Amino acid sequence: MGGCCYSKPLENVQPPQQPQNQLGESKNDEVKNDDGFVNWPFTEFFLSDLTTATKNFRSDEIISENAEESSNVVYKGRLSENLGFVAVKRFKNTPWPDHEDFGEEAQEVGELKHKRLVKLLGYCCDEEERLLVAEFMPNDTLAKRLFHQKNMEWSMRLRVAYHIAEALEYCSSAGFAKYDNLSASTVLFDKDDDACLSCFGLVREIIDYDRRTTGSVNTGNVTYRFGTILVNLLTGVEIPPSHAPEMINGKDITDLMDPNLMGKFSKEEATVILNLASDCLQCTDRKSLITEDLVATLEGLQAKKEIPSSEMPKITKQQEEASSSSQQQLPP
């Protein structure tokens, strides 16, 4: 392999000083990371470096939550004292017997740069071992926040939907329309608490999704999976992707909503999200709905005032009473 790939021991290594912007300047090329990886060139790592970084792949360094990837594990690691933490994905059932195929596919993903996409820093091939190395996102996954902590406000849910749609639209426009196992577990939060899409799912395993599907709808399809995430955000419930349609079909928006929101959401905005989810869950492989229009719709919801619709009548009444009272107290 050529290009900017290289392999060297990481002892006392310093971050590169010159940026390696392979996609040109744009507002989407910003990388929010202060840990030394902003200008890091795509790297072929030694297995010994990653073994040391993850403390010999110790079980208490495991950070993966996705049950669908139980055969593959993601570890937290640190390359050296000079650098920040990284996430290391180790494939147990190696889907790439060929070293060059794996390296080339990883390098293509490593060239992607977007503020809503976790940066892929490099990879490792060592005999039967296949590993990927990415930035470490310090603020948990959407799955943990939504299904376990259960304290995500409505405005944050809208922001997550918008950010992930941004990332998927960018990937699609860059030629990466497919993504393995998109779910709430592959949505991560960076140091600024913004949602980012894991880059690991873009380096695709060899999976026959057709065997998972019935009829014309493919539950492994990116758009379908995004619809499932929208259902997660509405309901706060963790469900298999195949159960997402029955979760929302024929349901009133008020009955559908996560009770942990305690009514503090906009019914109008929730209906928009529900309609988007319904459209996405009807998507086939021949049609993708993660478009600029969908992103624009979600972006439009960010600009609205975040006043819970359930509280609006109360606020209006209070304002009227206050206004009436002040008028009565005015001097003649």
Average pLDDT level: 79
The radius of gyration computed from the alpha-carbon positions, rounded to a whole number of angstroms, is 23 Å
Number of helices: 10
> Number of folding domains?
2
Total beta strand runs: 7
Q: What structural class do the secondary elements suggest?
A: alpha+beta
Under CATH at level 1, the class of the largest domain stands as Mainly Alpha
- The fraction of residues in strands falls at 5-15%
Distance between the termini: 87 Å
Helix content: 25-40%
Return the CATH topology of the largest domain.
Transferase(Phosphotransferase), domain 1
Main beta sheet strand tally, sense and closure: 5 strands, mixed
- Outline type: globular
Q: What is the CATH architecture annotation of the largest domain?
A: Orthogonal Bundle
Low-pLDDT windows of residues? 1-9, 11-34, 207-215, 305-332
The quaternary structure here is single chain
Strand order of the largest sheet: 1-4-5-3-2
